[in-house]
Amino acid sequence: MQQQQTRQNQQLIDEINRRKQVETSLQAERNALAERTAELSMANAELAHAARLKDEFLANMSHELRTPLNAILGISQAFLEKFYGPLNDKQRKFMRTLEESGHHLLALIDDILDLSKIEADKLTLKIDSVSVSEVCQASLRMIKEAAFKKKFGLPPL
Predict the structure, then answer these.
(1) CB under 8 Å to 58, separation ≥6 — which residues?
(2) 94: region left, alpha or beta (phi > 0 left; psi from -120 to 50 alpha)
(3) b/e 120-138 (16+ beta carbons within 10 angstroms → b)
(4) I want to staple 99 with a disulfide (CB 3.0 to 4.6 A). Which of 16, 34, 76, 132 is the partner?
(5) What pTM was computed for the model?
(6) How confident is the model at residue 34 (pLDDT cuts 50, 70, 90)?
(7) pLDDT given at position 155
(8) Among residues 107, 102, 112, 99, which one has the least CA distance to residue 60?
(9) Cα gap 113→127, rounded to integer Å
(10) Does residue 83 contact residue 144 with C-beta atoms inside 8 Å?
(11) Statement: residue 120 has pLDDT above 90
C-alpha cells in the first residue's frame, strides 16, 4: 500500500511538474503576444500619422496648385471674352487649348483629392451626364500638339 501511495505521489509530482512546464510555456507565449501586440499598435499609430501627413500634404498642394491655376484660367477666360481686345483665329484656338488644359489640370488635382477621400471612405459619387463628343474633341485637342511635335521631331514647349 505504501508503494502504491509512493507511486501515486510520484505521479502527482510528475503531473504537477508537467503542468508547471505548460504554464511556463503559456506565459512565454502570452508575453510574446503582448510584445507583438505592442509592436503592431505602434506600427498602426505610425501608419495613421503618415496618412494624416499625406492628407495634409495633398490639401496644401491642392491649394498651392489651384491658386496659380485659377489665375491662368481667369486670364485665358478674359482673353477669350475679348477683355484685352480681339483675337485672331489662331490666338483664340491657343487660348481655348490653354483654358482646356487648365481645366484638365484642375480635374487632375480634384482626382488626386478624390483618391484620398476614397481611401478614407468619405467620397460621395456625383453621377451626371457628359457629352461623349465634347470629351473626345477635348482629348484630341490635348494630344494633337504632342503628336505633331513627335511626327516632325520638334522639341516640346
Answers:
(1) 112, 113, 116
(2) alpha
(3) eeeeeeeeeeeeeeeeeeb
(4) 76
(5) 0.55
(6) very high
(7) 57
(8) 112
(9) 18
(10) no
(11) no
Q: Is residue 91 part of a domain?
A: yes
How many structural domains compose the chain? Answer: 1
In this prediction, residue 4 has a pLDDT band, given cuts at 50, 70 and 90, of: very high
The amino acid at residue 123 is: L
What 3-state DSSP class applies to 143? Answer: helix
Q: How many other β-carbons are positioned within 10 Å of the β-carbon of residue 106? A: 17
Which residues are CB-neighbours of 54 under 8 A, at least 6 positions away?
116
Residue 105 lies in a domain: yes
Are the C-beta atoms of residues 61 and 105 closer than 8 Å to each other?
A: no
